[in-house]
Amino acid sequence: MSPEIGTLVRESGDDVEPNIPYEIVNVEMVTTDVAMYQGIRVELLDAKVHAGAVMLWRRPITGTGSKLGVFIELLGSNTDEWLNKWIIFKEWEAKKRSVELTAAPVERATKATTAKGIAKAVKEAEEE
Fold first, then answer.
1. pLDDT single digits (tens) 30-68
2. In a domain, 3, yes or no
3. Domain ranges, residue 59
4. Contact assessment for residue 68 and residue 40, using Cβ atoms and an 8 Å cutoff
């Protein structure tokens, strides 16, 4: 008998919801094990500290409607400058991608450096 592999199947593999503000908390370059594809993994947190992530596949030239193209058009090509920016995925479907910058829903959350710190800032803001 074969063991359960525990892999989820998704259309894009991205884990974000539309119309929810997310803060970019980590950006890392990755290379896949199987085909050695190069990508950029963008990790996100919303104000309620729910994690999300998107994978942007690297290529020498990309279109403005591709995942990578949308991020570059909005945030520039230096991924260090993406950190701590708040964004909203307006549309995130194949051939239909739209992301916008937004203000932090909880001002103090952007000063936190960990998910625990963000959760504390959100809780404090809700109590005010």
1. 888 778 889 999 999 998 888 999 999 999 999 999 999
2. no
3. 21-127
4. yes
